[in-house]
Amino acid sequence: MATARAKTVRAPKSSLANRLVWRAHRAGLGWLVKAGLSVWHSEEKARRRAIAARLAPDPQAEQVAESLRHERWAMATAFADSSLLEALRAAGEARVRRVDELARTQGLSHKSFWVRLLDEDLVEGCFPSDSIFVRFAMQRGIVELLTRYLGELPILTDVLLTLSRETGTALGYSQLWHRDYDDTRTLKLFAYLTDVRDTRDGPFTFLPGSLSDRIGITLRSHLPDAKVFSRVDRAGAREMLGQALTVFICQTSRCLHMGSRVAPGHSRLMYTATYVPAPMTYPAYMPKFRPAGALELNEQLLLGL
Predict the structure, then answer these.
(1) What 8-state DSSP symbol labels residue 196?
(2) pLDDT tens across 77-107, in order?
(3) What CATH number matches the domain at 13-302, 2.60.120.620, 3.40.50.2300, 3.20.20.30, 2.50.20.10?
(4) H or E element: which one contains 265?
């Protein structure tokens, strides 16, 4: 595949414009912003759709993509490269051994219940493309699966490694039920790097798309259990349990979800990668990755470069 020199386009920062777009997404009007920008970026959209059209038939991948279309989530362990998965776990465990040091030096966070373990990797706001935490999100099996679902090559917008721990404080932020407003269709790839055996380990928990739709638009961005389960049956919530190296995908812009409700003496190490369809709707968005060596053209498009 052809390679090209990667260019990073830095958009002017506009917190007000970003806030307005966030409000539009939350009000269910983000598709209007997306539609207008998609027309403006029609050439890029066509290039990304052409990549999807060239994918070879794969019945297993199509079956999983269909699951994503219906309920907005799917298991993806079978599509993850086992060697990359093991390397990801080893890299994650190495960070956990330094967790106290990293907790002291991480940037400000309103989420006291977790420690972000990749802050030190950011140089001028960007991760290097050769990092295992980026390479795992760029692997062919996962990217092709997401491309089949979206009908186009997505943009990888972020990678995250977090260690969730019990803090003894009241539940807040992402420990409450919420949707993500990165885009009209925000897909997150999750990989457990420690065993998540039961509720005490703080599993990622969500309502499949059809149930989440019953909640609709709410004034509060984070909802307590009582509010959610006054509208839907608690039995419909999907609690993702699994051994370390379990991988799954959820469309978190559609599915109400929460997690990190960790019991005393327990912890959860989880990797997350976020993907959205192009173009980005936020005016101040800047790619969060920098090339480390030559990248293929599809890789540049994936990283938004």
Answers:
(1) B
(2) 999 999 999 999 999 999 999 999 988 877 6
(3) 2.60.120.620
(4) none
